[in-house]
Amino acid sequence: MTMWVFGYGSLLWNPGFEVAERAAARLPGYARSFCMRSIHHRGTVAEPGLVLALDEQEGAACDGLALRVAAGHEAATLAYLRERELVSSAYLEKVLQVRLTDGRDVEAVTYVIDAVHEQYCGGLPLEEQAQIIAHAVGGRGPNTEYLFNTARHLAELGIPDAELQWLSTRVEFINR
């Protein structure tokens, strides 16, 4: 069976699994935002960072990439993604329908925020997000690296995200 994964943050630039096909895709009903406190990868329990998550919102849509997993790698990919994405149970694993730009609808493994989890922090003002991201460091490195890589890859893919662009500019200024 064909397996797709929806990427909207670090999966855009660091999928960590063998990708057979990449296609621009839209996920309705969710918005990409820095609404999850990171206590492992981009921050610590004492000084959490922020990572992107899909926050369910009526009328919203998130543009990203649908990544088709190479045939024969489905089980290993799912195990890898669960180890990576479900480290603190703040994400929920869902299989959701995404629409590819060529008109195909596919079911994709997608990681969305659990809005009742203690790491959920939706609605933080952008300036507060910038201050957190500018200073946080976790097991996978500085929070700034996560922001800058994601914003750059979205721009390269032609996917506009005004909030990430603003945050990138602001965090660069803070860290001068």
TrEMBL record:
> Which Gene3D superfamilies does the record cross-reference, listed alphabetically?
Gamma-glutamyl cyclotransferase-like (3.10.490.10)
**Which keywords does the record carry?**
Lyase, Transferase
Q: Which GO terms describe its cellular component?
A: cytoplasm
- Look up the signal peptide feature and give its range: none
GO MF annotations, alphabetized = glutathione specific gamma-glutamylcyclotransferase activity; transferase activity
Top enzyme category: lyase
Q: Name one GO biological process term.
A: glutathione catabolic process
Entry EC number(s):
4.3.2.7
Q: Which residues form a coiled coil?
A: none
Where on the tree of life does the source sit, at the highest rank? Bacteria
Any idea what this protein is called?
A: glutathione-specific gamma-glutamylcyclotransferase
Q: What is the lineage of its organism?
A: Bacteria, Pseudomonadati, Pseudomonadota, Alphaproteobacteria, Rhodobacterales
